[in-house]
Amino acid sequence: MQSRWTALGSEPAIDTSSNFRLGHRHYLARPSGFKRCRPNINGVGNNDEASLATYFRVEKNQIINADCLRAWRVNCLDNDDAFHPSFLQEVIFGGADDVHLESDTRGILEAWETLHVSFAPGLSITNGPYLVKNGFIHSIWRVYDDRQLAFVQSTWPSIEDESTYVEINAAGNGYRGHGIAVPARSYAQDFGSPTQDDSENGQRSLKGIRIAVKDNYHIRGTRTSLGNRAYYETSPTQSVTSAVLLRLINAGAHIVGKAHLSSFAMMEHPTSGGNAAAIAAYDWLDLALCSDTTGSARIPALQTGIFGFRPSTHSISTEGLVKAWSAMDTPALLGRDLLIFPKVLKVLQLAEPIDSYSKKPPFEILYPRDFIPEDSPEQVDAMKDFIEDEDWQKTAPVEEKDLQEYLCNLTCHGWFYSAYHSFENFRQEYMAANGHAPFVTEVVRWYWHLGSQVTSEQHAEMMKRLSVFKKWFLHQYQVGGLRNNMMAIHIDTIKPRYRDEYPGNGSPEVPGLRPTYLSAILGAPELAVPITQLQYQSRVTGKEEKLPMVVSLMGAPGSDMQLLEWTIDSLRKSNRPVKVNTGKVAFDT
């Protein structure tokens, strides 16, 4: 049951794919770098027929026995959601000569119902399942239905130019959803080494991680929508991929597609809703890259029961991110598994922060009473009071002793002013091309109107006040002997958010300091952490359901890694999970 395959090199081809199904599973197969192989005269089967195969990349003089194959199957293939036993119809060992196949492997291969075993020394591809069609090797991509309508589009790298991404036209089977294609997880594993080295000399440390991207990042070969059709129609096909995405891709991550967001990433919460919905619902997705201005990572994390991380401002490149308030905007992360976050942070940080923070746990955890959700006593009972408004009254470096009054116009003079002027060029270009203003949602229209009424002098004054507040706050709470202070914050009231309730407000209040603004003003890292679940009566199901309770922890500026590591350690010591579930509830109990 053996034959020898010969790699015939590369040939140009159209960047296309083939659809097929195995049971209820939907797959796409696409040429793998145009690599072609053909059995020699002693081979079996028709070269023009499509066949399924599993490729094992071996080393020279490697000895393969039954235990080796069995371990690979259990540890890698069976944990690969794209793998199906039908791919074992043919097994190809490639990448090296002089491979020794022990006699005890025959029983394993027969149990797998393998029909052919082939050797292809010149064929060097990643391990895992493939389709061979017309002599060409095709990589396997499993297609999942986007049942939560989380994605704008599904993407993969172009075959001809891997630095360019193209949209995948894969229809889903579910209601209105796209088909989202993901590569086989076993492609990221080495045969004989089921537990891959995370370091790899600092390279490819995120190999195989699947990531969804908020559609306010530019990706070469795609257009950016920013959650608005007019913006999408005006936006050109991008020639450059954003810097943060390039770091993820170079570290081995795969970008599965672009996720929905609220229009212009404004305050129709949750603004990173597509990313959060995908992470909370899909176990085939590992991480989401979003952005955070004044809560766009932390609020969706609260509403879906996942981890959300806003890094220190300007610690990660924003090049290629469509910014609404450049002073506050930063890339951010959403995920179910907190253990992934430190690995990703190492890849994304522009430079190692100065190691001025103690490795010991925080001396104190501050709890500002300013942000207590008074309409949720059960939520309040979960945390205790610490700080009072009197701190500003006693120590403020300015005459205005009422903090809320001092920052009363923060949202309007800061956020709305910047959001309005950030998209001035877009509005002008659209008007010139179409003869009328672009359609935007009620919320965006109102916020832009408010921002247009703010003068540059008023904006400058607000930015000056934010600088004063930042200096005061860091001196008051996070310097000197209390350098390692951490602050626990309520992100928002925890309550059901139903889909038939409009998330915006046509005549919004313009509050002063809000809890999600604090880390943005300070440039500090903040981590939203699911800690428990609360009971509520659902008006949809008519039953008692569970809502995740998520609190936020904020560290000093630059203490990003310490914040993540301390939180992981604290969760473990308190027997709380560092990973939440997909689906209806975040925790098993």
Automatic annotation (TrEMBL):
SUPFAM superfamilies: Amidase signature (AS) enzymes (SSF75304)
Pfam families, alphabetized: Amidase (PF01425)
Signal peptide positions on this chain: none
InterPro entries xref list: Amidase_dom, AS_sf
Residues in Amidase domain copies: 200-267, 272-564
This protein's name: Amidase domain-containing protein
Source organism per UniProt: Imshaugia aleurites
